[in-house]
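RESIDUES AND SHAPES:
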Amino acid sequence: MLTKHLLKILYWFGFTLMIAFLFKSSFHKFWQAWITATMLLPSVVVVKYGLEQGSKQKSAFSRGVLLFFYGILCLYLSYMAILAAYWYFLELDSQAFNFMIVNPVFIWISIGFFVFLEQLVFKTPVEEESKTVTIFSERKKTVLQIDQITYVESRGDFTVAHLDTGESFKNSVKISQWEQRLPEFLRIHRSFLVNPHKAALHGSQVRVGIDEDLPVSRGYKTRVEAFFLG
């Protein structure tokens, strides 16, 4: 994991160097162009966050509005960075400035290309994806190891994923959606979905962990008994 983060840092360092080469004709020295390119990194963060938030929207209209908003915010931050460099390095000399670098299409394409390339280069292999599940808990993206989940509990408008580490993560994923994401898990109740590898039948209940017993509803009783006793 540390190696992957280091590679991403090197990737975005390479991004600043490549953008600096595109900017160098507008500045007296290459390091000035590089610093300007580095100042575009907040715009990169905005684009990545906007894409992440957009992917969570069910409505195409909501997704479009959200992406438009983050696109404008990206443009604004980029303009502020370029304007600051223009003022500091070029002393507002318009004749020494290449106005191509403030073209919104140039900015969006440059940043968008590298964001999508990063997703392609650092895409998680299917084998690794199958061992994890991603949720949003407390407004933060959280990746859970499936083999650490003991059970998922439904509490009305939200569910809670319980881990064998003692941690629990509240999220908005419905238990029916959890059931689709974790087909190897066993539904024992309308409110409980358990990891069968971390559970055992204990009388009329299912025990997870050391001493936590979960109820088995009448509708799932036959299936649960068949699984553990069959």
